[in-house]
């Protein structure tokens, strides 16, 4: 696994962004997250060592723009080069998430066709309103590998009708002292929807405030992912 952030900075665009950890961390360091800057390691996947070998080893997944949004308007001038990098490194699998899926068709390269085999697109949702808006668009897009990311999940949602062609659904809660609670029943319901449609499911992290069987628990940030794993409810087809 590798990370590639060709630019930094982002803008909040919906309820799921309310307690964004990127904005919170930047604020502590006196950095304005709303200023979008091209990264110095923009061409990281093409970087080579002294022997002429790629530093990012073949066969791994590269997580793209996990501190921003790949479809961010401010990055329109740089994105075409990113697509070219992905084409050149066809031996890597690139994964990016977006809350701006409505911009997708305006942001793809001319040779996209029905998608690049080495690119997975994750559509991020947080509530039923954003699920209906974004997934209605997502379900019709020409993408070979689709994931749905329900994180932070802030209410019960039904996404069953949008699961055709989706490879994986990820669910996670919110991490913040002001976080909105995650109810375990919501997680299990989405799992059941995935099982009905034969879609892989992953419970990635609990929320800081986690509801289960009518009780609310407060979970330290460092334990959110470990506690989700302990639930042992991931589903693989």
Quick structural overview:
With 237 residues, this protein is α/β, with parallel strands linked by helices. Helix content is 24%, strand content 22%.
> What's the β-strand tally?
12
- Give the overall form: globular
Q: Which range does the strand content fall in?
A: 15-25%
| Termini gap | 22 Å
Work out the helicity level.
10-25%
Number of helices in the DSSP assignment:
6
Poorly predicted spans? none
Let me know the average pLDDT.
Answer: 96
Question: Key features?
Answer:
seven-stranded parallel beta sheet, alpha/beta, single chain, 237 residues, three-stranded mixed beta sheet, globular
Task: Give a description of the structure.
There is one protein chain. With 237 residues, this protein is an alpha/beta fold. The protein has a domain at 1-106. It has helices spanning 21-28, 76-88, 104-107, 128-138, 184-197, 224-231, and strands spanning 2-4, 7-8, 37-38, 61-64, 93-98, 119-125, 145-150, 166-172, 182-183, 200-205, 209-212, 215-218. It has a seven-stranded parallel sheet with strand order 1-4-5-6-7-8-10. A three-stranded mixed sheet has the order 9-11-12. Strands 2-3 form a two-stranded antiparallel ribbon. Strand 4 (61-64), helix 2 and strand 5 (93-98) form a beta-alpha-beta unit. The protein is globular, with a radius of gyration of 18 Å. 36% of the residues are buried. The model has no long low-confidence stretch (mean pLDDT 96).
